[in-house]
Design brief:
Layout: E1 4-7, H1 15-27, E2 32-37, E3 40-41, E4 45-48, H2 52-56, H3 65-71, E5 76-80, H4 93-105
Parallel strand pairs: 2-5
Antiparallel strand pairs: 1-4, 2-3, 2-4
Amino acid sequence: PMSPIVFPGLTFLTPNLINNLIEEFYKTDKCIVLPTYKERRGHPVIFDIKYASEILALSEDREGLREVIRKHQDDIHKVPVNTDSIIRDIDYWEDYIRETNILDSQ
């Protein structure tokens, strides 16, 4: 049985979206599941436990999870979604301000 490892980042995700990705993870024989919006990859990415040691060995001077994804292109299951929330990320205070302004204007 496969066991997922999830790195969601700080995004505007819904429980339905996360549940859908988890369902897709268990349906596919691929060990990396990632959502896409208009062909753009987003978050959260779900990795099988088989990548745990590789992920834990990542260093700050490298590209992080992108490196793992690039290295294992043949083991990726892309899940198209209909929301840009998967590509919106908050890492800094400025990101938070930008995103709250977008939400306030809707």
